[in-house]
Amino acid sequence: KYGVKYDAELSAEAMKEVVKKFKEIYKKETGEDFPQDPFVQLRRAIETVFKSWNNPRAIKYREIHKIPHDMGTAVNVQMMVFGNFGWDSGTGVCFTRNPATGEKELYGEFLPNAQGEDVVAGIRTPYSIKDLKDRLPDVYKQLVKVAELLERHYKDMQDIEFTVEKGKLWLLQTRTGKRTAMAAIKIAVDMAREGIITKEEAIMRVKPEHIQQLLHRQIDPKAKEQHRPIARGLPASPGAAVGKVIFSSEEAEELGKRGEKVILVRPETTPEDIGGMAAAQGILTARGGMTSHAAVVARAMGKPAVVGAEMIHIDLEKEEFRVGDVVVKKGDVITIDGTAGEVYVGELPTIEPKLTSEALELLSWCDEYRKLGIRANADTPEEMRRALEFGAEGVGLTRTENMFVKGGRTDIVYEILLAETEEERRKALEKLIPLQKQDFKEILEVMDGKPVIVRLLDVQFYALVFADPEQLIEQYYKKKYEEGAGSEELMRLENLIHRVRAIRDADPQMGFRACRLGIVYPEVYEAQMRAAIEAAAELKKEGKNPILEIMVPGTAEPNELRFIRRIFEKVLKEVSEKYDVELDVKYGTMIESPRAALLADEMAEICDFFSFGTNDLTQFTFGWSRDDAERAFIHAYLKKKVLPYNPFQTLDDKGVAKLMEWAVKNARKVKPDIELGICGEHGGEPRSIEICHKVGLDYVSASPWRIPVARLVAAQAAIKEKQQKE
Amino acid sequence: KYGVKYDAELSAEAMKEVVKKFKEIYKKETGEDFPQDPFVQLRRAIETVFKSWNNPRAIKYREIHKIPHDMGTAVNVQMMVFGNFGWDSGTGVCFTRNPATGEKELYGEFLPNAQGEDVVAGIRTPYSIKDLKDRLPDVYKQLVKVAELLERHYKDMQDIEFTVEKGKLWLLQTRTGKRTAMAAIKIAVDMAREGIITKEEAIMRVKPEHIQQLLHRQIDPKAKEQHRPIARGLPASPGAAVGKVIFSSEEAEELGKRGEKVILVRPETTPEDIGGMAAAQGILTARGGMTSHAAVVARAMGKPAVVGAEMIHIDLEKEEFRVGDVVVKKGDVITIDGTAGEVYVGELPTIEPKLTSEALELLSWCDEYRKLGIRANADTPEEMRRALEFGAEGVGLTRTENMFVKGGRTDIVYEILLAETEEERRKALEKLIPLQKQDFKEILEVMDGKPVIVRLLDVQFYALVFADPEQLIEQYYKKKYEEGAGSEELMRLENLIHRVRAIRDADPQMGFRACRLGIVYPEVYEAQMRAAIEAAAELKKEGKNPILEIMVPGTAEPNELRFIRRIFEKVLKEVSEKYDVELDVKYGTMIESPRAALLADEMAEICDFFSFGTNDLTQFTFGWSRDDAERAFIHAYLKKKVLPYNPFQTLDDKGVAKLMEWAVKNARKVKPDIELGICGEHGGEPRSIEICHKVGLDYVSASPWRIPVARLVAAQAAIKEKQQKE
After folding, report:
1. What is the architecture of the domain spanning A218-351?
2. May I ask the CATH architecture of the domain A90-179?
3. Contact check, Cβ <8 Å, B508/A511
4. What ipTM describes this predicted complex?
5. In chain B, where does the domain assigned CATH 3.20.20.60 lie?
6. Is the CB of B470 inside 8 Å of chain A's CB atoms?
7. Would an 8 Å CB–CB cutoff place B484 in contact with chain A?
8. Is A259 helix (H, G, I), strand (E, B) or coil?
9. Does A524 touch chain B (CB under 8 A)?
10. Of A107-121, A556-570, B311-325, where does mean pLDDT reach its minimum?
11. Among residues A12, A40, A2, which one has the least CA distance to residue A20?
12. Can you tell me the distance from the alpha carbon of B586 to that of B555, in angstroms, rounded to the nearest whole number?
């Protein structure tokens, strides 16, 4: 209207007109004239600041950041300086270090002849702070000096707002600057090196999320702004992955061998899918929760996964899935974001993960402070190598389920499954022992000199090969009517359905699994222990130093441990004699049921170690199945404030932690040197690790990808404790 | 060979020949001559007695009766008397009272001119003890006197062995006599009346099984000897039942109305089968465990049931079931024994149950001693009337599931199930309120003046109408291919399958049920509470005295109770105002999860009462689902001595009872007058009732048929405690 680009160019007349307009708007909205008394104006301005404490955005902000609502705010009243007094005036914002990379350099923007709003509003394009050096060299020199001074004073990178009025520098505000994960770590480490802060302070300043963010390939945030996900599921395993959609594990494995990038898409996965999962870039399932097979294995492999994406309808026969109108066919490229639980059509650009040299340095400092040991939950030599790279001091949990099915061993599982007598089962198991011995040798060799806890079989045999018995029934009827299968084939299926229905658990989590299997079918645990202990014996013979610990899952009663211990001792003796070698193998149990925790003193008498399985312990303490809870009601509980957080993600400090404390105290009373750890997923979660430290565990064990975070949090917990004592 | 019938008739020559034969056998077996020195003979005889301590039968006996193996035995050496010195000699056995009926009369057998072995061996038929009166009147008189004396001395009915040598009575042995349930009760009550023992002693002397045995119709033991069961299952609900096999609940209901006796045979039952179950004499299912729907409902109804009889293959279409080669068709008569878990083809004779007058008297004595209150788990007016007859002082648990489905209300459940919004659910629930109000009125009227605990809905909606979602899939494919059903019908089924699969729990026991339902869908609990409280208000208006207590199931977190309490208070206020009547309704929770027990102090602040749901509490404390445990491994655990007893039948005193004790202590600390009870099935089990007494509960609640036993055991626990203090 006035033919100018910036407000500074407006004439006095035009300004008067604008002021008039503003006054009219004020009167219309408030019903009174704009006050002309400067004191009234000031008073109103102060009131407005106070009132802003209760606007919805402020309330939301406080809720997110857990700031109490009754804390209140202050108002500073001070003289105004003007950046729009001419071209030797101006205003700017600067960071004392680069907030994106952490480099030590003045970083920011400057706008000459302007006020602060002009920078914020983005009407004029500001100059880089470097330009200030040429335009107002004295001011720039002063700013550099002040920046240094403020940083030394506040001991952190500062975000400074300043105004220059006729060549004179005024600081309007300084505060700790926001920064990226990478910058946060670099700044903390650099400042400790520069002597501005101590190593302890550097450790306390880095947040677990900072470390975590470095460890996963992410979708480029810019690309995310431009695309919408076609489906959402649970963020089961973080990171981004791009690949061709493949619906069969065998095919994924084949393509993987040829170097193709694929995303394995399944209704849900079973141990039989491990090969395909390993070969895929990422996993997408339509069913299952945060502890479904797909989720647990993906996290252990460090592979991005989105699970339980119920919006996608998979048609395995047509090899396609649908979301609403969108059809994604085999071979189409998709991108999944396991951090957010999102699925995109097409290839989105991603950012590489890496632990920076500063992160590595920081973590080495952490190791000086922390009291908790750090172990890994890892099942394969590859995972263990990764864990060692990340700083694991041992393996807290090796699951053995996969050793029953990998490399074509499924046939043996069917043999066990269909066996009618102990002899038949033993015969089938005999075939497994040499194969599993080899598996154990590989593992113990990678971890040579470091403890490896081997958990005995935890799931029922049928669950090793069928995800869902209902599929059998569908298959049966389909075969019967559509394919006209031969009567032999149908008979076989019918038999299998009967068999599985008869042994299927009504409540799998509380069913016939874990050590119950090893008591009803002692030959199974005997075979597993023989394979593991013989592996250790052979390595010892070869001059290696295998440190094997055998762990019994799912105990609730000390007699269970006594029963299996008799088999353990028999096998240990037999193997020692066979190889003529002295073996020191520890025997212990998971503490997964409330009863095991309550009877910890009696359990401790029979054990060399405990490992808290806090996922099951949480399930049973609450009486909630995790899958059902996360599917059906945890969300409502959080929304309705019935729960402050999801106890399957963060250890429940009121119930589960109480049981753990009780168990630790009573176990140590009976056996002071008993080794106590945690191998539930909580072992990798920051707030839970702090509880583990407080409760007095010896170590936490987490999937390899969570180990760096665990090292940080363990150090922070130790430092906090030290500070509280001082 | 010697032409005689009894050994007493043998000549001296013949005797010598027999002795020679015996000597030869002895030499052949032992390799040495039979010792002729009487002292050596005596020594050998003594050794034989000592050795008998370790024969397999003795070991088994001690195991059954829990007698320690290191206790040892004694040998008495005494002079021999001879009952075979002629016809004024003889031997016999007598009871001081009739061991079958308890009548006060000498009861037993006598054999003249014979030794003890002759009576035991059964070669000669003995005379009734009455005959002794005529044959040897003096001896008889003496025996009567001695019997009286011994009974007074030992204060119990005696089982006496005696020998008469030439007219002189010698007593060989006296011990407490074995007796039937009926006799045990009569003898105890009579002896107390006669002043031989005190009332306390009479109560202590009757065993819970004695009372229990009187309460169930049994198969005549003689008939049982002559028939073999065709199938076995779990003894889900005791008693015998005879009737025609019927496979549909509707048909069972119809035939029941016409007075026909039927046995309802189903794969398993759902709340929809309640009508048929009520009309049937007994229930037989092929699947399900001791807490399956069929089992729980049958016990509550006091109806014999055999469940989980997996050997029977039911073909619902053909209306028949098979066990091996045997085919039982609709209309065929079978007999089931719910006490033993057996199924017989045909009608076996049964014995009527009744509480004798002595049993009633004994139970009234019990009420003077016991400290535990006795309530009933009962869902219908009929069950409650039965419970009152048996002496219930209130209702500890009314389940409300049936109020959703009975009398054609299933359609409303489908409406709720398929509702997409809260409004749609509320609309459906509105229809239920007046119907359920009527149900509650009937119940509260029967129990007028006595407390009635109403448990809010505990299962998910779909579970009210489907026993097994898999059946839907079978149905779908069958319809699709066999019946060529219309596409609309198929679409409906497909929709239902999708719906149910989406909301079905992976672990129903720990899934989306109990108070989780009431928090996610508050309108459901609101409707139930409104119906119940309005019923109480209307009765109060009519001058009655309804005592209503509202119970929230399955809590794990105090906030759950706070959330639902807000609804409770709102409804209570609204109803009080609507009817203008002051209502005193208690609000409480079940303690079913370990976490609820651990946080009992905080829970108590929000509650007027707790009721321990020990079935779930046992499940979660162990991490075992009862159905799976009893199907798959409890049996092996007992056999391998991993467990001393089944913790689902008898309260686990090491784990579950510990949690209960903790909860009771901490709840009373916060609220000393909080009302504490148990409504798990353990509440009717003798050893568990004793634990409840020790833990300090106010009452136990059990199904009506277990109430007489509960009264007895509660009295015994109080007496034992008193005795220990003295």
Report:
1. 3-Layer(bba) Sandwich (3.50)
2. 2-Layer Sandwich (3.30)
3. no
4. 0.80
5. 377-460+505-696
6. yes
7. no
8. coil
9. no
10. A107-121
11. A12
12. 17
